[in-house]
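Below is one protein, fold included:
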Amino acid sequence: MHIAIVDDDPDIAALMMLWLEEEGHTCTHYSSGQGFIKAVKNKNFDIVLLDWIMPEFDGEQTLSWIKSNEDIDVPVIFVTQKATEDDVAKILTLGADDYITKPVRHKEMVARINAVARRANPHVDDVIIALEPYHIDLTSREVTIEGEKIKLTEKEFKLVHFLFKNIGRLLSRDHILSAVWGYDLGLNTRTVDTHMSRIRKKLDIIPEKGWRLSSIYHQGYRLEHLTHMVE
């Protein structure tokens, strides 16, 4: 996962980054809420670890900004020294998905992050993702539509799996490249557009079948499961 750490204490941030990178995650540190807000408009994160007390733009303000932006759908875990029942109730009411108290404990932090990730993306660890009319089998690496196998390259399969893990989320081209191809951010993204076009055609992703794969100008792509089928 790509995790944003928003904390004005560089020592705490460095320790959390060390632990998370040992677990195989990618981390980006921001020392202020403003810095994170500026970056998140062009980057995707799977989880945000957000310090409550920061100068100028604190955790509450940052969380309120995240929740007020429909295009930014990311779970938020507060990291705070405040641990009273009223404090916890307040941040959860504001929209935080969980909280971790300082001093941060390694195993607890990892466990809470994994739990929030599972709740946010219930299909992440599934061996089979079955969402009509699609059936995605991670063991056989096959995608079928109503029983008919769809011929996909390895990269196309990885892209389909990544999209269906992130239904409803706006995914930047850079994030897609990094997750599916393993490229560093900032490289040419036209290959993403080419593969998205192929996926849309091969899987027949159209509103009439309850799905839409949208290209958002200058931002990225979003796979949506439509609640109302088009007649």
Remarks:
- The chain has two domains: 2-120, 128-225.
- Residues 79 and 100 are 5 Å apart (CA to CA).
